[in-house]
Amino acid sequence: MKHLLSTADLSKDDAILLLDTAAQMAATQSREIKKLPTLRGRTVVNLFFEDSTRTRISFETAAKRLSADVINFSAKGSSVSKGESLKDTALTLHAMGADAVVVRHWASGAPYQLAHAGWLDAAVLNAGDGTHQHPTQALLDAFTIRRHLVGRRGGGDPDGVGADLAGLRVAIVGDVLHSRVARSNVALLRTLGAEVTLVSPPTLLPVGVESWPCRTSYDLDATLADWRPDAVMMLRVQRERMSGGSGGAFFPSPLEYTRYYGLDARRLALLDDHAIVMHPGPMNRGLEISAEAADSDRAVIVEQVANGVAVRMAALYLLLAGDPSAEGNDL
């Protein structure tokens, strides 16, 4: 596999290989010298057409810790702002000898086009495209879930190396309609054997969600109390993608949304003792999650950010260097 565009493209073996490699990368980050020489001489371009903090910095850190040369390209201040097309940008990167292009784009499908249009000869990693996919976010979420709920609680390897997520239940709560994180997670978690329930107001569920490999619910309290999820993943309410930016076309008011779909102290008390709280960030504190929930002992939100570096190191390594332990496997 030359590119990482969607979690739907990953087999179970592919996903576990990525997670296991991430565990190896995470282990190296506790050393005094964190850099590895693996990608020395390779060039990784971060091509971001949308604003980003966590993902862009995480990919940059991952590439540098693998000793790759990194070029950060922002649409603002570049020729894109003058009207340059995606094709011409890609041809420029090809001329510069990019080995991997990490792309975030507002248009769903842009990374796929970059990967398959023949404009450049480089591995393409999707860092988020429109409301479509964000595969490395789903992988770091799965890595975090496996570490906490399989490794640390399973009595075996502390990272859960080699294990899938069979038998675990994950509730994904909030603005599913605009969330590439939700789409990526549903596909990957099901591939790894977990059960998934989407909890959202009906106005924030996409058309066709009934064909997704998951359950849906409009009742957060009932899901937490009766279904007993092992992990609760809160999604950011993406008001910038809603008309007027207030969410008014999708729910009556922020207060109403919080009352029915916000994670607060009362709802935390409904969770089993081992359950963890997740959020892909950035958080709208006081809207989809209270400060008490975000800062509770159950929350692994900061750990998700740290795990993102290891997962992205694994993805870059496997795409650019291959897996030496599996002949013919270039994922």
TrEMBL record:
Binding site for carbamoyl phosphate: R54, T55, R104, H134, Q137, G281, P282
GO MF annotation list: amino acid binding; aspartate carbamoyltransferase activity
Annotated PROSITE patterns: CARBAMOYLTRANSFERASE (PS00097)
Entries under Pfam families matching the protein: OTCace, OTCace_N
BP GO annotations: 'de novo' pyrimidine nucleobase biosynthetic process; 'de novo' UMP biosynthetic process; amino acid metabolic process
Documented EC number(s): 2.1.3.2
Top-level taxon: Bacteria
GO cellular component: cytosol
InterPro entries per the UniProt record, alphabetical: Asp/Orn_carbamoyltranf_P-bd (IPR006132), Asp/Orn_carbamoylTrfase (IPR006130), Asp/Orn_carbamoylTrfase_sf (IPR036901), Asp_carbamoyltransf (IPR002082), Asp_carbamoyltransf_Asp/Orn-bd (IPR006131)
Catalytic activity: carbamoyl phosphate + L-aspartate = N-carbamoyl-L-aspartate + phosphate + H(+)
Binding positions for L-aspartate per the UniProt entry: K82, R180, R236
Family per record: Belongs to the aspartate/ornithine carbamoyltransferase superfamily. ATCase family.
HAMAP family: Asp_carb_tr (MF_00001)
Binding partners and assembly: Heterododecamer (2C3:3R2) of six catalytic PyrB chains organized as two trimers (C3), and six regulatory PyrI chains organized as three dimers (R2).
Protein name, as recorded: Aspartate carbamoyltransferase
Originating species: Isoptericola variabilis (strain 225)
Lineage, broadest ranks: Bacteria, Bacillati, Actinomycetota, Actinomycetes, Micrococcales
